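New here. Invent one.

***
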Amino acid sequence: MKEAKAFAKPCGRPSLPVTPDKVPPCGAAFDPNAPCRLVDLYSIMPTILHMAETDQRRVLKLVRDAGFLRVRDLRARGLHPEHLRRLLAKGEIKRVARGLYVLADADATPHHSLAQAIKKVPHGIVCLLSALRFHGIGTQSPFEVWLAIDRRARRPSLRVLKLRIVRFSGASLTEGVERHKLEGVDVPVYSVAKTVADCFKYRNKIGLDVALEALREGLRERRFSRDELWKYAKVCRVAKIMRPYLEALD
């Protein structure tokens, strides 16, 4: 192997190699007359490589623990996004959306898109058609992920995943939220009773037939009690609208 060389920008001053006993203390004042100290890159390369491998192991652990990983998750922990590119090149992770990564051998569940959406929009709540699909109510199979967000929140935009954003406010936004662990992600979803009430509130968006189907099936399968449904009908201010349909099903 060739003798290790050190490189430095010529400055006209004598050069000395850096040794542990001659490294200036941290914060020492710069002396323009002091000789330049050259760093032997070959000697410190193993340390640099070890640090990079350690950081990549940390990244893999984050992905494994969380199920998904965003670029900003790395920056929040002081890790460089370059580690994601290197792990992607090694085939240890894969990209499922812009800025969103999972383990290469991760098995997508039937609710993969919900977990993916909440990872990108953490303040969203799965609602309406997506909530019906999650609970197994009705025959709807939306190609979009329906998310409820606060009426004052900024509208999210994803290039890969299709979202249908609905504005909720007050108790209509916060009541009836369940939390489910999907692919390592804590996903908020409205309960069956709350979702049925929401369907009547937004019947002009999804269709009255969808709301009636969800109401009939939920009652037939005893997915909620009438008292629970009535509670959320009042929260959503659709009690008067739902009353005749409930009486017809008695």
Summary: The first helix runs from residue 41 to 66. Residues 1-9 have pLDDT under 50 and may be disordered.
